[in-house]
Amino acid sequence: MRRARLRWRSRRGLLENDLIFERFFSRYEESLSDADVGALTRLLELSDNDLMDLLLARKEPEGDLSDPDIVRVLGLLRAV
């Protein structure tokens, strides 16, 4: 149920973000752990522009976003 909500929440105002998340969920949705779901939830709380900067590696996660689970999921998102 949480995974289905995440897919819905990943629909963003920026097409670039939508495309990245669509590819990510197509590849990884079935294998997401609870830690992955938590990390994605925290990433999706960011504004569209901040999220895009992280996804496109214009910025690196700082502060509470430098959590190992977030960094790992962000790496998967960047790889799709």
From TrEMBL:
Q: Which InterPro entries match?
A: SDH, SDH_sf, SdhE_FAD_assembly_factor
GO biological processes: succinate metabolic process
Task: Provide the protein's localization.
Answer: Cytoplasm
Source superkingdom: Bacteria
Q: Which Pfam families match?
A: Sdh5 (PF03937)
A GO CC annotation given for this chain: cytoplasm
Q: Which UniProt keywords apply?
A: Chaperone, Cytoplasm
Q: Does the keyword Transferase apply?
A: no
Q: Which PANTHER family match?
A: FAD ASSEMBLY FACTOR SDHE (PTHR39585:SF1)
The family note in this entry says: Belongs to the SdhE FAD assembly factor family.
This protein is called FAD assembly factor SdhE
